[in-house]
Design a protein that fits this description.
Nucleotidyltransferase, domain 5, five-stranded mixed sheet, alpha+beta, binds magnesium ion, 12 helices, binds adenosine-5'-triphosphate, three-stranded antiparallel sheet
Length: 336
Amino acid sequence: MDLGSSRTRVYIDKKGKVLDEASVAAYNVSENRIIAVGDEAYAMLGKTPDSIQAEYPLSGGVIAQSLLAEDMVNILLKHVCTSKIVMPRVVASIPGDITEVEKRAVVNAISSFGVRRVFLIENTKVAAMGAGADIMGPHGTMVANLGAGTSNAAVLSLGGLSVNKCIKIGGNNMDEDIVKYIRKKYALVIGNPMAEKCKKSIGCLIKPEEEKTFRVKGRDAISGLPRYVDVTSSEIMNVIMETASQIVTLIKDVLEETPPELVGDIYSDGIILTGGLSKIDGFAQLIADSTEIKVTLAENPEDCVINGCGQAISYITEVEKNARSNMDINPLMAAY
Ligand SMILES: Nc1ncnc2c1ncn2[C@@H]1O[C@H](COP(=O)(O)OP(=O)(O)OP(=O)(O)O)[C@@H](O)[C@H]1O
Ligand SMILES: [Mg+2]
């Protein structure tokens, strides 16, 4: 399971990815009753009457509202696991720099579904596995997993993390920057989902070859009436560049801390980019230009973490047998 700030994905052994929905839950405020989760709840964001609230239970890669997260996970899992016996053990990815309390919240949210055991694994490890890298050998692999609430970068070798850093900065910050910019420049109030659509459709991080435009629709800040403006890709590039620069700095920080022997491998193999945000036009180029290292965008970058979790299932038996000799190179970090 990849319980992300913006999307929740589920992979079942031998079946593959069976669920990919927004990490959103909508509930009736007075009755405290969930009325929708996933994509259905996402469609309600910003459109709910006073009696209904639609929210993301995760923020910055960690659970911010535990009861809501638990309900959301339960309902989503019920959609795909018709029989509980099908899924007695779960591998779940977590961001780097997560506290014990935050880990426990992930375990609780998942185990409330009736799961026997939860195994946690850092998302950079699974991202590298899902991108097809061999992380078990004595060879350095660098991966950057860029999501909605977090950006993670790591160097792996021998199944472990040599360096792993995480910042609570990602696609959501870009969306917020777009909301603020549109309000300030055009006196137009828009919601985060509109800003996200704009980012996905025309956002870029290198000078675009041909200028694209996007129609942002919202409410006039003064008259309160509906209005729209057409914005260009260069305009949006300037707005989201600040957040992108912080992500580039994270990658440089990881490179600076990488042991010299592993840096050599990274110079020859390059950096692997995964996560939904890495799909933004020109991100790979921006990172390559700033670090002078080759950058490869993984195939289906948004699915690398969940596909890697699927691969990590094969290590569960090893952990359960507690085979000491192999534990050192087992990528699963903890079992609860
Ligand atoms: N084609 C695209 N262009 C630009 N941004 C995109 C594109 N597709 C997805 N994104 C952005 O990627 C982010 C989602 O990525 P991902 O699914 O990896 O995040 P997550 O796992 O939910 O979050 P996190 O790992 O931070 O908890 C969102 O901010 C989304 O707007
Ligand atoms: Mg993620």
